C-alpha cells in the first residue's frame, strides 16, 4: 500500500512514517516508480514503534529493541546484552520516578480541590 493508505491504516502521519524510515526503524518496499510500498508486516512494526514512542522510549533504544521483537537481531548480535538491559531498566526507573512525582502533584491538587469544595472557595 502507498504511504497515504499506510498512514490511514496505522493512524501515523505520512511525515512520521518517513521519519521512522529515516531513523532506520522501518524499511518499506518500493514500487517501480520509486513510491514507498508498505506491507502489513511494516504496518504492524509501525504500530509497535508508535506504542514504544508513546511510552517515552527514545528512538535510539527502540532501534535496538525492534530486532529482538522480531525474534533476533539483524546482525546476529544478541539484543539482550547486559549493557542494553541496564539502560532499559535505568529508563524504566526514571519513568517510575516521574510517575511518583506526578501522583504526588495530583494528590496535592485533589487535596486543594477538596478543601476548596468544603470551604466554598
UniProtKB/TrEMBL annotation:
Record keyword Glycoprotein present: no
CDD domains linked: HTH_MerR-like_sg3
Assigned keywords, A-Z: DNA-binding
Sequence ranges assigned to domain HTH merR-type in this UniProt record: 1-68
Coiled coil region boundaries: none
Signal sequence region: none
Keyword Transmembrane helix: no
Pfam families found in the cross-reference section: MerR_1
InterPro entries to which the protein is assigned, alphabetical: DNA-bd_dom_put_sf (IPR009061), MerR-type_HTH_dom (IPR000551), MerR_fam (IPR047057)
PANTHER family (alphabetical): MERR FAMILY REGULATORY PROTEIN, REDOX-CYCLING DRUG-SENSING TRANSCRIPTIONAL ACTIVATOR SOXR
Name of the protein in question: MerR family transcriptional regulator
Taxonomic lineage of the native organism: Bacteria, Bacillati, Actinomycetota, Actinomycetes, Catenulisporales
Amino acid at each position: 500500500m502507498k504511504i497515504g493508505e499506510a498512514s490511514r491504516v496505522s493512524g501515523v502521519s505520512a511525515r512520521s512514517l518517513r521519519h521512522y524510515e529515516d531513523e532506520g526503524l522501518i524499511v518499506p518496499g518500493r514500487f517501480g516508480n520509486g513510491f514507498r510500498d508498505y506491507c502489513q508486516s511494516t504496518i504492524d512494526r509501525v504500530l509497535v514503534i508508535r506504542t514504544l514512542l508513546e511510552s517515552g522510549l527514545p528512538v535510539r533504544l527502540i532501534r535496538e529493541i525492534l530486532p529482538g521483537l522480531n525474534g533476533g537481531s539483524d546482525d546476529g548480535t544478541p539484543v539482550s546484552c547486559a549493557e542494553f538491559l541496564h539502560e532499559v531498566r535505568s529508563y524504566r526507573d526514571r519513568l517510575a520516578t516521574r510517575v511518583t512525582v506526578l501522583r504526588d502533584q495530583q494528590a496535592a491538587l485533589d487535596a486543594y480541590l477538596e478543601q476548596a469544595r468544603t470551604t466554598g472557595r
